[in-house]
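Q: For a teaching session next week I want to show students how multiple molecules come together into a single three-dimensional assembly. I've collected the sequence lines for a complex. Could you give me the predicted structure tokens for the whole thing so I can convert them for display?
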Amino acid sequence: MTKSTVVSPQAVRDAARDLFASQGYRGTSMKDIAQVLDVSAPSLYNHVPSKQDLLHTIMDVAMDRALAALEVALAGVNDVADQLRRATEVTVLDFLENPAEVTVCNTEIRSLEEPYRQAIIDKRDAYGRRILAVVEHGCATGRFDVAEPRVASFAILEMGNNAKAWFDPRGHYTAQDVAALYGSFALRIVGHRAG
Amino acid sequence: MTKSTVVSPQAVRDAARDLFASQGYRGTSMKDIAQVLDVSAPSLYNHVPSKQDLLHTIMDVAMDRALAALEVALAGVNDVADQLRRATEVTVLDFLENPAEVTVCNTEIRSLEEPYRQAIIDKRDAYGRRILAVVEHGCATGRFDVAEPRVASFAILEMGNNAKAWFDPRGHYTAQDVAALYGSFALRIVGHRAG
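A: Of course. Below is the structure for the complete assembly, covering every listed component.
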């Protein structure tokens, strides 16, 4: 019996994302993905050229979304403390709202082949440089006071990365509450002084 | 030809740790591990009951080492700010010194079966509670001022988790320099006031 269900590229990506997050890229076969989508493994290749291509697309879409959200968060914001608060909040919200994608991005850069690998690292670095530029600008204008802006910007980026592991959307805090707390931690890390 | 090389339990764990870190638990077979050790796959079962048992042992040894190092770092330290600084430093040093183990502990709790899974989560939670207790004690005694000690303690634990990704031991900072920076960030996050 030939299965002929039509699946969207988005559905394929979502199924692959969840499987990569729960059992790893190498531990997931195209057959596993086809099974979740209820299509035959050979027919899956009508939708995607390869498992490697799927992994890259999942990460690329995730990075583009995060980079775009960061630009929106910073657009028209002039005060450097507001910039850092907003950049941190949008980073933490992205972590909380896309837990499976974040797991894949965190863990499977190891599984990307070139030139995919470098392309994703470049986007991740671009995100980090945007945060670092805010921290450095704050230091240069005397609003922030931190010995090592580069290390501080890494700490700010990382501190909420695993919040998805303990955050409970039905719990005491909303995602926005959590993001706001991390925003205040970021300002403390850089030694923010009121302007 | 029968391979009869004698391998130590430590060598088996180290080989498995590196493979789990680089290609994931599910993406690694006992045959892969045997190949690295240059023994036959069947003979590997003389050393370890199962791949699952290996994963649990790797994480259990890592958690016990981290918990013991935390206790050593806090032993005889009475000032709560010194406690938080030292706890943060020893956490970051553990992250920097054991990158493959940290990757496995971060990513493969998903692959643990019960009762192993809960046992490792319990140890991870015990580590987190020890940090939280320091933060709460600092708040209760007026030395720290932070709205949500629980979230602050998560941020402190997480902020250096991925420092291994950018830390270069031949670079500008030593591991101890990096740990000291994160210690100062932790004190800032909790709003430390000099005693």
